[in-house]
Amino acid sequence: MELLRSNMSRVQIPEPTHRIYKHECCLSFDTPRSEGGLFVDMNSFLAFGKEYVAWNYEKTRNPVYLHIKESPKSVPEDRPLKKPTLLAIGVDGGFDNNEPEYEESYSIVILPDFVSLPFPSVELPEKVRIAVDTVLSAVGAEKREQVAAWTAEEKKVSEHALALQQLKSGVLIPPSGWKCAKCDKTENLWLNLTDGMILCGRKNWDGTGGNNHAVEHYKETAYPLAVKLGTITANLEAADVYSYPEDDSVLDPHLAQHLAHFGIDFSSMQKTEMTTAERELDQNTNFDWNRIQESGKELVPVFGPGYTGLVNLGNSCYLAATMQILFSTHSFISRYFSHQSLKLAFEMAPADPTLDINMQLTKLGHGLLSGKYSIPVAEKNVATGDVRQEGIPPRMFKSVVAAGHAEFSSMRQQDALDFFLHLLDKVERGNNMRPDLDPTRSFKFGVEEKILCSSGKVSYNKRDDCILSLNIPLQEATNKDELEAFNNQKSDQGSEENNMSTDEIVRPRVPLEACLAMFSSPEQIRDYYSTALKGKTTAIKTTSLTSFPDYLVLHMRKFVMEAGWVPKKLDVYIDVPDVIDISHMRSKGLQPGEELLPDDVREEAMESAQPVANEEIVAQLVSMGFSQLHCQKAAINTSNTGVEDAMTWLLSHMDDPDIDAPISHQTSDVDQSSVDTLISFGFAEEVARKALKASGGDIEKATDWIFNNPNASISDMDVSSSNSAQTPAQSELPDGGGRYKLFGIVSHMGTSTHCGHYVAHIMKEGRWVIFNDSKVGISTNPPKDMGYLYFFQRLDN
């Protein structure tokens, strides 16, 4: 006790502003349930596992710790599984993992000799008792920042329900036997509460659902509210009411009155259909996506170094799939595992290691690759009987990598491609003091765009990239005869794909080589301003690569616009070989006899590049029901490339906090830090300033402006050599031969990249392994033809 009193100056009583860690070690994935328990520094309130607490004492000389140990209670073996009724994790009515219950024990430990004192005890100094009680009663920073429970947003009362005008049409709705008024659909039917029309719901990307008759009726009549038949019961709050103008499920406080208008006695009706939220819950609990997840096959679990699963934190599968593949590359393994110890990373980290990207990447790397946490749990999964591993929860990593990003810091599903690009940017910034250690360089390559003007003169524009985003040319499908026969059979029989088994459906098969060829094929640029002709003309753009990366990432653009400007996911197979050769895609540079376009960037041309939306694109989007302002922003932010790209941007940015803010046409002096950022990309300062001025100071838009105005950057590009001289940034890029071997696939199932589920398949030790969140097992049939992102490693000659 005297030893404790002599160190009282090192004990703090937590303030409300303190971040208190008590659920997970800052340097590892040890928890109070680990063999050594967890030690909370009573000065900094950081937590450490038994192996690491001494490192913290050496670094800080903080000697007093609260030791927390959790031990499992005995639980009856026949404890039933509870079916979730709420789309939530870790709350009443939410998902129940049937985990054992634990009891906690506490003690005060004084380093360096690990002297232990019992807690609670009246003999402890009052300051210590108050400090410990405050720590135990506080919400841990881990749970405050990465909430384990996520719940669907509560429905709001519709503004259209309060003054809904119902037509006196005399329509009476029977209690059953409904059918769409415009087709033969008998499921997914919606009753319009204005005129009593019964129509089918929206068609899903995979052909299931309805035929869009309900939403088309709204567009024709502007009648705002519909209720889903089959969801009406005595509990009217559970009925699924949809507001088309508000584009959301809503509450109708006058629903009983609105139903009575059509003779509906809700008190006697039975529930026969799932609500929208229940269908989402059903997808989250079942994941009935057999092919990608290899469901129905006996999954042989794998354990050991490199085979550690990642716990799903709630819609974090995009993160798990991406990180599993990145930590299968030599560059990330070397940087954050084999050549970086946890102790060294901790010594180099700031006072709070939870906020350091390099520390948390090292923690994640050691967690995934050491094998320490890839061990079978003591008991089998009660529900399935499978031997499983618990996996590690990447909470601190997600918190630091998502800091300041509105989407990645949320609990919503995200696009794995967006996360991959965001992560590479974070990692590059985290290694800016030691670029030689930067693992993201292994993904970078140079891109060269050659523009041939109708004058016969050329310009070259170069940039760095880390993905090849490929369009899918369906016209190059290799099974056209089978497709035609399938479509004819479907038409003759009047059948729909959602009534067929997966084996019966014929989908287009497009070779990857055709997608790569499309990337390199010449492309027309209309209204191109030629400095040689001093006017606009049509030019030809050809894209090639100036270097080949160590790791090549291919992104398949599966989301397109179908007839009626409805976003659709291409139901297509991509035939991807194990080895590809992209040598033919290498740039040849400036050729003998080619003459460069003159460097004459007109000020009026720069001014005309102010962000102005293409009126045709805006009109088409507005006709689909979107607001004028939102459509203008979508067109501007996609550089007016087309309705498809604008729609994709619009759907993924509807929840942006500034989506309703007026469009900025800033013309004042640009921010110097933004100029410096563009200069670091390899652009000249003059070009950077013009681009930022033309783009209202937005770096991303400025970059697009430079690429869309290649004449503006000619002065910064050294293309005088027939060998296509590289910029300083490009000269540091890795390079080698053009042969690559497939080693990783990120697959996606769902209606868009922002919902559904992501899974990774990785080639390890000569066999394919599936990483499905915390599940890790040998893959018997990897979905090579269904990937969203493909990862290739260059083969050394």
UniProtKB/TrEMBL annotation:
**Domain UBA intervals:** 612-653, 669-709
Per its UniProt record, what SMART domains does this chain match?
Answer: UBA, ZnF_UBP
Recorded GO MF terms: cysteine-type deubiquitinase activity; zinc ion binding
Q: Does the keyword field hold Zinc? A: yes
Q: Which residues form the active site?
A: C317 (nucleophile), H757 (proton acceptor)
Note the CDD domains from the entry: Peptidase_C19B (cd02658), UBA1_atUBP14 (cd14295), UBA2_atUBP14 (cd14388)
Q: Which UniProt keywords apply?
A: Hydrolase, Metal-binding, Protease, Repeat, Thiol protease, Ubl conjugation pathway, Zinc, Zinc-finger
List the Gene3D superfamilies hit by this protein, alphabetically. Answer: Cysteine proteinases, DNA helicase RuvA subunit, C-terminal domain, Zinc/RING finger domain, C3HC4 (zinc finger)
- Pfam families registered for this protein in UniProt: UBA, UCH, zf-UBP, zf-UBP_var
Q: Where is the UBP-type domain?
A: 156-266
Domain of life assignment: Eukaryota
- Enumerate the Gene Ontology biological process terms: cell communication; protein deubiquitination; proteolysis; signaling
SUPFAM superfamilies recorded for this chain?
Cysteine proteinases, RING/U-box, UBA-like
Instruction: Write down the chemical reaction(s) this protein catalyses.
Output: Thiol-dependent hydrolysis of ester, thioester, amide, peptide and isopeptide bonds formed by the C-terminal Gly of ubiquitin (a 76-residue protein attached to proteins as an intracellular targeting signal)
Using the record's annotation, list all stretches that form the USP domain.
Answer: 308-795
> What is the E.C. number?
3.4.19.12
Indicate which residues the UniProt annotation says bind Zn(2+): C180, C183, C200, H213
Q: What does this protein do?
A: Recognizes and hydrolyzes the peptide bond at the C-terminal Gly of ubiquitin. Involved in the processing of poly-ubiquitin precursors as well as that of ubiquitinated proteins.
Q: Which family does it belong to?
A: Belongs to the peptidase C19 family.
User: What protein name is recorded for this chain?
Assistant: Ubiquitin carboxyl-terminal hydrolase
| Source organism | Raphanus sativus
